[in-house]
Amino acid sequence: SPSLPEYFVVPSSLADQDLKLYSYSFIGRRMPLWSWNHPNGSALVRMANIKDVLQQRRIDQRICNAITRSHPLRSDVYKSDLDKCLPNIQEIQAAHNKLKQLCVNEPFEETEEKWLSSLENTHWLEYIR
Questions:
Q1: Quick check: 124 pLDDT over 80?
Q2: Does the pLDDT value for residue 102 go beyond 70?
Q3: Structural domain count, the chain
Q4: In the chain, fewer beta carbons within 10 Å around the N or the C end?
Q5: Any domain includes 8
Q6: How far apart are the C-alpha atoms of 19 and 112, rounded to whole Å?
Q7: Which residues contact 34 (CB under 8 A, 6 or more apart)?
Q8: pTM for this one?
Q9: Which residue intervals of 1-129 are DSSP H helices?
């Protein structure tokens, strides 16, 4: 994948040939990518969606098993679909533009009474939280 770094961390229990094979299943060939780990062994792994819905469960399970086998405490994988609980980039950009407009384009004295509700309506604070 041209959007991944040249080198990245993968579970040691996944063979190179499996990685190559699985990479074609991910949108943009974006394999699971280790992003961060905690001293207790927990890791944050980013992963693109799998193209083929029929293969999704099998591939997802194989990768999650490999991550579990590579964990020092053999902890199970906890997955969270961030697409469902986080705003997309267009929503963040729109909120930022509304915030800029509120802070730059409108005189504060004239909008003081409704400024806080206008700020809330931008969703900016919600998104950065």
A1: yes
A2: yes
A3: 2
A4: C
A5: no
A6: 57
A7: 8, 9, 10, 43, 44, 45
A8: 0.56
A9: 16-23, 53-70, 82-85, 89-100, 108-122, 124-128
